[in-house]
């Protein structure tokens, strides 16, 4: 396997396909111990590639070839070549038909790629290259075909048989079997193929599109989950309407289906007309899903639905262009979520996530550009860079063009490329052509990896009433990219006067002052902008709304940050000022801890937080966000060498101080909100999310004081809440508290009550795995023996192993290396079961360069042990070998 693994695929080697597949007719015969797949491919020579007839090389993996024929002539083994991953035939005419029959084994497919069983149902996951595990095919996104699919199965266990498109025929067979045929009128690449067979119930609804067409909507789930679909259905209808209004995109089939499955590698998949979802991204109701889970369901339903245009109607030419559909679709779903809920809170959450996780990826061994140049295993490139940074790149285009110009660009893109497989360059070209602009330099965001730094300095000339900002951009070297060219960095900014009002802005050379918030385009390594008519030295509010994914620095002092926290007209930047203040204060504490000094918290942080808590006119969700200290992972990201112990000590010290100093106002707000929650039924809406968010963060601070009245309130919240948001917070707070009896009781009651709900049990695993109390690894090992745990279910792996290694930094980074050893052991086991999940769980170990020498050695040793552990999947091999390089 090793030589195969090391094979790197390069974007520069892209070649259009030699052959095209006009029609694909599939027949699946599903059985308990095998499945037969018959494929008929109506093919022709790609006219773009000239006249000759090169060999036809079909992709196929783990397939048992039973028969193959070319234009109805059955081929003998000497007529074709077969290896581990290809079937090669020699066509004799420009148009021909290939028929093949293969046997596959979904019942033993633990990689959850291709056709597999999740519990008792059959389902598929084909993106990126899973279709080749179903049948021999040209498994590449630029080969688009019209699919007709017939599924046959035993009727009693598999009453529901689904595939893409519209149902066209069905019937019964001898021996208790039945069949159904589905036809998808839209040409699509094989990665969008889907099939489902199972004993499923569905919730039905309908949607009338903007042109008046009626679309049937169905969400299929296992019978016990039929009461948890309404939120997803509501989210779907909102998404359909929003895409019509915001992008002019209408749905195109007569039916749209979502199926929830328990075993799924990702969140969900946008297969044409038949989205398959991880059940965690569909099921939600008050009693079992938190507010965050409700918002995640809404966002993922929207994301997959939006792919119908950004991904399916217009798809990717090759997998290097993945961000074409993913970055754009994340940008679209973020716009939707901002419109459905608080836009500022959504932006804060996205930016906090990006800066913690994507920035770390961008400075690590797997750093790659938004459009990568090469990969070994494409599954490893469904990354934060392709998704989240890709979305930021689209967002910057919108910031530069304005809302209207951007819409003109997206309209042109969809119209020009409907039915095509295209590139990121085509997307940018549509934006350029629709607006008459040149984005050549901007496109470096697609090709250069690494997070740019933007250092800003100021100069004020009182006599000339001139205020100058100087920007210096640089980007650190990343693997394969020692040097970078300057980016186009849109910097949204404002200038505040001494009262905190935005000044009208007039750049040197402009006739008159214009808006008070504007976007400067920083395009050079060093560049200055002078504002004139500035009567007194202002305070700049920079990178409003986080207008570019850069690390901006400006020498604010703490009083200035407090001023911005109170006065900035940009909500995001008010939060950002609070974060910067917290970071400064925490870094000071980290230094004190490292020098062995007593920790002393800057009281200004307490003053700033107190005024937020006491101001009842503020949006409660914003107050909750501002009360959340920067996480340990973000503080690690900001450190040259991440001192986990010092970071943990500093954060916990600050949290305890806040809990103590602000006890009275926190307790008041907690009680008031809890009282409202107690008397109002659960509603999954913005103002209710906000109330519970403030209530819950207040509780987490209050519990640090070990006061009996708070403990009683927490236990009451655990016992007497009608919703998971309040109950789970109470549980998490108890789990991290010193109150052993209450903790044990709550954990036990929770597990008893929810033992039959795997998604809730995931939460139960997670809160324990993330608990920073000592002995974390032993608890995790013990939990792995729990009957609800299995390494075969990706959600369980993420809930327990992922939460431990990714969130429980203090325990995972134990100095004896036990956390690293544990994770490596799990990865070796997972490598054989599910390579994609194994590779994803590796990411904490890939960050080894961030830590002290002793930990570096321990982490590296575990990576080396994985590398030497035997046959590695290409997924794990790529991440481990690049991490050690
Ligand atoms: N497009 C899918 C990704 C599936 C990748 C699996 N290796 C999910 C999404 O982004 O919508
Ligand atoms: Zn997507």
From TrEMBL:
Residue span, Peptidase M1 membrane alanine aminopeptidase domain: 232-445
SUPFAM superfamilies in alphabetical order: Leukotriene A4 hydrolase N-terminal domain, Metalloproteases ('zincins'), catalytic domain
InterPro entries named in the record: Aminopeptidase_N-like_N, Aminopeptidase_N-like_N_sf, PepN_Ig-like_sf, Peptidase_M1, Peptidase_M1_dom, Peptidase_M1_pepN, Peptidase_M1_pepN_C, Peptidase_M1_pepN_C_sf
Domain Peptidase M1 alanyl aminopeptidase Ig-like fold: 450-553
Keyword Nucleus in annotation: no
Keywords: Aminopeptidase, Hydrolase, Metal-binding, Metalloprotease, Protease, Zinc
GO molecular function: alanyl aminopeptidase activity; metallopeptidase activity; zinc ion binding
E.C. code: 3.4.11.2
Catalysed reaction, written as an equation: Release of an N-terminal amino acid, Xaa-|-Yaa- from a peptide, amide or arylamide. Xaa is preferably Ala, but may be most amino acids including Pro (slow action). When a terminal hydrophobic residue is followed by a prolyl residue, the two may be released as an intact Xaa-Pro dipeptide
Cofactor requirements of the protein: Zn(2+)
Similarity-based family: Belongs to the peptidase M1 family.
Protein name: Aminopeptidase N
Species this chain originates from: Pseudomonas kuykendallii
């Amino acid at each position: 396997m090793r030589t195969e693994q090391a094979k790197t695929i390069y974007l520069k080697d892209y070649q259009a396909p030699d052959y095209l597949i006009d029609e694909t007719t599939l027949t699946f015969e599903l059985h308990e111990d095998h499945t037969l797949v018959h494929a008929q491919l109506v093919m022709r020579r790609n006219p773009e590639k000239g006249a000759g007839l090169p060999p036809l090389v079909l992709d196929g993996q783990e397939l048992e070839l039973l028969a193959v024929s070319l234009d109805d002539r059955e081929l003998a083994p000497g007529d074709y070549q077969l290896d581990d991953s290809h079937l090669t035939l020699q066509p004799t005419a420009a148009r021909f038909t290939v028929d093949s029959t293969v046997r596959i084994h979904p019942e033993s497919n633990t990689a959850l790629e291709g056709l597999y069983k999740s519990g008792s149902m059959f389902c598929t996951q084909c993106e990126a290259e899973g279709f080749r595990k179903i049948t021999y095919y040209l498994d590449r996104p630029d080969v688009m075909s019209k699919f007709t699919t017939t599924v046959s199965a035993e009727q009693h266990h598999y009453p529901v048989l689904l595939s893409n498109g519209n149902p066209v025929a069905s019937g019964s067979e001898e021996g208790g079997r039945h069949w159904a045929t589905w036809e998808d009128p839209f040409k699509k690449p094989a990665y969008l193929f889907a099939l489902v067979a199972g004993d499923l119930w569905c919730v039905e609804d309908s949607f009338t599109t903007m042109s008046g067409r009626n679309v049937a909507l169905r969400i299929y789930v296992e019978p016990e989950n039929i009461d948890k679909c309404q939120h997803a259905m509501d989210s779907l209808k909102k998404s359909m309407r929003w895409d019509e209004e915001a992008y002019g995109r209408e749905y195109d089939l007569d039916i749209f289906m979502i199926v929830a499955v328990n075993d799924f590698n990702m969140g969900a998949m946008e297969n044409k007309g038949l989205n398959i979802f991880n059940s965690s991204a569909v099921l939600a109701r008050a009693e079992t899903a938190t507010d965050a889970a409700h918002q995640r369901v809404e966002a993922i339903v929207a994301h997959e639905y939006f792919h119908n245009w950004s991904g399916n109607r217009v798809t990717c030419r090759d997998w290097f262009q993945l961000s074409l559909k993913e970055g754009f679709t994340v940008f679209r779903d973020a716009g939707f979520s901002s419109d459905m809920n608080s836009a500022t809170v959504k932006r804060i959450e996205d930016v906090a996530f990006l800066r913690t996780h994507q920035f770390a990826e961008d400075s690590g061994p797997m750093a790659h550009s938004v459009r990568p140049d090469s990969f070994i295993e494409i599954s490893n490139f469904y990354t934060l860079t392709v998704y989240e940074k890709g979305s930021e790149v689209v967002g910057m285009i919108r910031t530069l063009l304005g809302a209207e110009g951007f819409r003109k660009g997206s309209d042109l893109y969809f119209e020009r490329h409907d039915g095509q497989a295209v590139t990121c360059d085509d997307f940018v070209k549509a934006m350029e052509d629709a607006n008459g602009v040149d984005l050549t330099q901007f496109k470096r965001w697609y090709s250069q990896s690494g997070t740019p730094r933007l250092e800003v300095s100021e100069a004020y000339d009182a006599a000339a009433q001139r205020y100058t900002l100087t920007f210096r951009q640089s980007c650190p070297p990343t693997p394969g990219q020692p040097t970078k060219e300057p980016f186009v960095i849109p910097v949204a900014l404002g200038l505040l006067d001494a009262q905190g009002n935005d000044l009208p802005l007039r750049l040197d050379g402009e006739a008159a002052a214009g808006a008070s918030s504007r976007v400067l385009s920083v395009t050079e390594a060093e560049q200055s902008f002078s504002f004139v008519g500035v009567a007194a030295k202002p305070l700049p509010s920079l990178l409003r709304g986080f207008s570019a994914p850069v690390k901006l620095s400006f020498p604010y002092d703490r009083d200035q940050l407090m001023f911005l926290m109170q006065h900035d007209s940009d909500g995001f930047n008010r939060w950002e000022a609070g974060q910067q203040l917290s970071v400064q204060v925490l870094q000071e504490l980290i230094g004190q801890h490292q020098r062995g000094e007593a920790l002393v918290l800057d009281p200004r942080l307490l003053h700033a937080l107190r005024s937020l808590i006491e101001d009842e006119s503020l949006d409660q969700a914003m107050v909750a966000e501002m009360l959340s200290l920067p996480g340990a992972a973000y503080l690690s990201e900001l450190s040259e060498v991440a001192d986990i112990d010092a970071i943990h000590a500093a954060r916990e010290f600050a949290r305890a101080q806040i809990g103590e100093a602000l006890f009275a106002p926190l307790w008041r707000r907690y009680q008031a909100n809890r009282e409202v929650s107690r008397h109002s039924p659960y509603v999954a809406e913005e103002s209710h999310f906000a109330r519970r968010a403030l209530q819950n963060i207040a509780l987490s601070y209050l519990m640090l004081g070990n006061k009996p009245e708070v403990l009683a309130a927490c236990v009451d919240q655990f016992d007497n809440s009608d919703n998971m948001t309040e109950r789970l917070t109470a549980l998490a707070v108890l789990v991290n508290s010193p109150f052993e009896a209450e903790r044990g009781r709550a954990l036990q009651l929770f597990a008893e009550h929810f033992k039959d709900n795997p998604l809730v049990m995931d939460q139960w695993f997670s809160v324990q795995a993330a608990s920073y109390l000592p002995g974390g690894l032993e608890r995790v090992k013990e939990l792995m023996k729990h009957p609800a745990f299995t390494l075969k279910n990706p959600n369980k792996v993420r809930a327990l192993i992922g939460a431990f290694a990714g969130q429980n930094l203090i325990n995972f980074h134990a100095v004896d290396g036990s956390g690293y050893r544990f994770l490596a052991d799990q990865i070796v086991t997972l490598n054989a079961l599910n390579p994609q999940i194994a590779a994803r769980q590796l990411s904490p170990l890939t960050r080894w360069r961030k830590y002290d020498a002793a930990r570096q050695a321990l982490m590296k040793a575990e990576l080396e042990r994985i590398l030497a552990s035997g046959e590695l999947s290409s997924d794990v091999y790529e991440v481990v070998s690049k991490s050690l390089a």
